[in-house]
Amino acid sequence: MLGGVFHAAVLFLVAAGLQLVFGVQRILNLACGSFYALGAYTGVSAVGWALGAGLPAPLFVLVLLAAGVALAAIGPPIERLLRTIYDRDEAFQLLLTFALVLMLEDVIRFVWGTAPVQLGGVYLVYGQARIASTTVPVYNLVVIAAGALIALGMGWFLARSRFGRIVRATAENREMAEALGVDMSRVYVRVFTLGVGLGTVGGALVIPATAAMNEMGIELIVEAFAVVVIGGLGSMRGAAAGALIVGVLKGVAIATWPEVEMLAIYVIVIAVLVLRPAGLFARATA
Amino acid sequence: MMTSRRRFLKLTGAAAAAVGLPAAPARAQSGPVKIGVLAAKAGVTAPVGESGLRGVQFATDRINAGGGILGRRIALVVEEESSPKDTVERFRKLSLSDKVDVVSGAVSTGVGLALGPVAEEMKTIWLAWDATTQKGVEETMPKPRYSFRSCDNECEAVMASILTAKNWKGAFRRVAGINPDYSYGRDNWAAFLAIMKRHGIEVEVVSELWPKLGSTDFTSHVAALQQAKPDLVFSCFWAGDTPIFMKQAHAAGLTQGTKFVLTTGGGVHESMKKAFTPEGVLLGYNSMYFEHPRASALMKEFVRWHHEQFKEWPNYESDHGYFTVVAYKAAVERAAKAAGGRWPSVDQIVAALEGVEVESLSGPRRYREDHIMEATFFQGYTTHKNKHDFVTVDPVEAMGTKQIQKPSGVGLYDWINSWKV
């Protein structure tokens, strides 16, 4: 169960980035998985450097967050590239973002090599906790809490803040928002950067518990798409609910009937597609 | 429209040319000996492909420094191993366009199954590193002529199971398996259970987990294992999933009091950090162990070269690569002697490769008459007493493939059940 929620927390961050960008810019961004992988690799390097510079080990999680946020700086130039295809067919968007996936994979290979990269000695800094007769590393709980906090923060931000209102207005009706004086290109840059940041922070947060591998992005894209189909494309609440469903279902399947681990997720996906094609939390489209 | 007879002949002729039906392409008898190399560069197999390529490079440098093969230098033509379909195309290109004398490489079983028939069709010698022409544990090509393949995939599982039966009998009953969800994982786990049975060890399987190859999150699997409370966990993870699994198992306290058998984890030995890999784990290094206390001078030279060049300690795939090149050289020289000193034909080289034995990095290796590699496998129990930040093994156990590889023409399980124990 808890293992499933841990997975769900990470999955949520990537899926939320995918949702946000699609909701506003109508771009299905396959590269969200690459941002996740890039975040993981950068997290390893940043913490390794910070610990080497004498940072006390318990503060490493702040370094990871900072690395994830700083890496979001690759958002604006990539958004500039995507701007050329906003008005074109979805096929072009898929092709271009998939090209980005391949290019970023090569960037990772070039910078960090092909062997898995890991962060030594910080996973158990916060110790282990005993919950219902099983031992869980406290760091897993930290990640779950961070995921939940970011979800709540996103919810508040979209519902209450001024920029959140503009984002929602743009998602509802791009032309109307533009006619009312919203500078669309600025909104797009910010939203895309935020979407990138969600992915890179997700990757950076997960890395103490795992190792960074080149193909980790692709692995997550597939699951993020399942999340999006279940939750409904473009919906933030859908991303949270979908991630929880996929993560927990996976955990329960592994504990009870491991053979159906992958199958179970896609049975739900198919059920949602048949019964509620727009997803559980689909926004009414204009 | 009627198709004229002449037009029809032209078409069929073109078709025949397109599928490469004509006899083996003529190869140069002078200039460098061209060795085509298929090395994975992306995905889970990238580190393995890179490692094999390094072994090939080391062998090539040494042979060229010593005057080449019968006075001809070796030139490598490196191509990428990727999907079976694309790799087959590259194999054809190496044979037809680059006119290589021999192809060395490939590590994925899926690719191997596709390359086998193509090597026959192109009449080009293919010396596999790790890819086999086995599906499950059954041969898909009982009598290949131009393909020479590696040791059986199950050798490491057979060896680890024998060691487990020998050293841990009576110390475990509840067993759990966590293995990658494809033929390799399934076959290794089945071999382990069959050997436990053959040794009269009663086990209770409390959990069988099949994560996808290349997974990076095992928290749910570890939780399931905690619930199942096994005495022994068996895994044939061989890539980056190995350290991730051990790290998460350790963080959840699973490594305390549970025995671990990692048949192939030595392939990524440098990432098996002491911080999360306990002592006493049975760890397999396949057919080469970089820090063997009785390593040959050649092996020591290679390990030194490898560490200077790449800042890494080598793993077994290097020796597969090394062996293919050195075996090819030995076969050419043997065949040339029989042919009165002239450069031998492809078929003469094939005949000379059968039964050829050479000194590889890890010790003597040979090709069996049925084109299967014979080598020595190394496993041992992990220790923290070394100069590295990762585990090594002490004592080191070695077993030859004569003991742990099924003989040709026999089913794996028939062979296991015929053991005297």
Q: What would a concise description of this structure say?
A:
The complex is a heterodimer of chains A (about 290) and B (about 425). Chain A is mainly alpha-helical. Chain A has helices at about 1-25, 30-50, 60-70, 75-80, 90-110, 140-160, 160-170, 175-180, 185-205, 215-230, 235-255, 260-275; strands spanning about 115-120, 130, 135, 210.
Notable traits:
heterodimer, A: 286 residues, mainly alpha, two-stranded antiparallel ribbon, 12 helices, 4 strands, B: 421 residues, alpha/beta, Rossmann fold, 2 domains, five-stranded parallel sheet, 13 helices, 19% strand, globular
What this model shows, in words?
The complex is a heterodimer of chains A (286) and B (421). Chain A has helices at 2-25, 32-52, 60-71, 75-82, 90-112, 138-160, 162-172, 174-179, 184-206, 216-231, 236-256, 261-275; strands spanning 117-118, 128-131, 134-137, 211-212. Chain A has one domain. The model of chain A has no long low-confidence stretch (mean pLDDT 89). The N and C termini of chain A lie far apart (38 Å). In chain A, 50% of the residues are buried. Chain A has a two-stranded antiparallel sheet. Chain A has a two-stranded antiparallel ribbon with strand order 2-3. Helix content of chain A is 71%, strand content 4%. Chain A has 286 residues and is mostly helical. Chain B has two domains: 28-151 and 304-374, 3-Layer(aba) Sandwich (Rossmann fold), CATH 3.40.50.2300; 155-286 and 377-417, Response regulator (Rossmann fold, 3-Layer(aba) Sandwich), CATH 3.40.50. Chain B is built from 13 helices and 17 strands. Chain B is an alpha/beta fold. In chain B, 39% of the residues lie in helices and 19% in strands. Chain B has helices at 5-18, 46-65, 84-96, 109-122, 155-168, 183-198, 219-228, 241-251, 297-310, 317-338, 346-353, 401-404, 412-417; strands at residues 33-40, 74-81, 102-105, 125-127, 134-135, 138-139, 147-148, 174-178, 204-209, 232-235, 259-262, 282-284, 357-360, 363-367, 373-374, 376-383, 392-400. Chain B is globular and about 65 Å long. In chain B, helix 3 (84-96) packs parallel to helix 4 (109-122) and helix 5 packs parallel to helix 6 (183-198). Chain A binds chain B through residues 1-4, 6-7, 10, 105, 109, 114-116, 118, 120-121, 123-124, 128, 134-137, 139-140, 206, 209-211, 213-216, 219, 250-251, 254-255, 258-259, 261-262, and chain B through 41-44, 46-47, 50, 207-212, 214-217, 219-224, 226-227, 239-240, 243-244, 247-248, 251-253, 268, 270-271, 273, 275-276, 312, 389.
